[in-house]
Design goal:
Blueprint (H helix, E strand, L loop, with lengths): L2 H14 L3 H26 L7 H12 L4 H26 L15 E3 L6 E3 L3 H10 L3 H22 L1
Antiparallel strand pairs: 1-2
Helix pairs in contact: 1-4, 2-3, 2-4
Length: 160
């Protein structure tokens, strides 16, 4: 095996360990380099004097060969690794769980109280109705206390 082949093999082995975000960064960088080369090639071809056919052939060849073969192999290996990972994660994601296999929490259903119009979670609706409609709770206790005070004050005034 030649040194170039060994280098490519090492690159592919590293690609299997590469994070998908890293592969994305490599791809973006590769796209930027390709765009830069295309821009230079197009500016060279749009010169006022016509280029020789040999120069045109070299420029067209440069456009296609911007991405190095090891980089292409690296990206192909990364794609295979991510597909393998996605295949393994598919049953977990279809089951409604997260990557650790935990099931997602149920969304709490909210109901609107017909008496006061506030929105209450379904599991707290019965206690709310008890306080709201039957006069139990903080507000009704205050109202009762205020009524008792006012009746006590009116009794004190009438006794004088």
């Amino acid at each position: 095996m030649s040194a170039a082949d060994q280098s490519i093999l090492r690159t592919i082995q590293l690609a299997a360990k590469m994070h998908p975000l890293s592969a994305c960064c490599v791809d973006i960088c590769d796209q930027l380099v390709q765009d830069l080369v295309r821009e230079v090639c197009s500016s060279c071809t749009s010169l006022e004097r016509p280029l020789s056919p040999r120069t045109m052939e070299l420029l067209e060849g440069a456009r296609g060969g911007v991405v190095s073969a090891p980089l292409r192999d690296l990206l192909a290996a990364e794609v295979q690794a991510s597909e393998r990972c996605a295949w393994q994660m598919e049953p977990l994601l279809k089951g409604g769980g997260d990557i650790f296999g935990n099931h997602a929490k149920q969304v709490v259903e909210t109901l609107t109280c017909t008496n006061c119009g506030t929105q209450i979670a379904a599991n707290r609706f019965a206690p709310h109705l008890e306080r709201c409609m039957l006069g139990k709770g903080r507000a009704s206790a205050r109202a009762a206390r205020d009524m008792m005070r006012s009746s006590a004050e009116s009794d004190n005034r009438s006794s004088f």
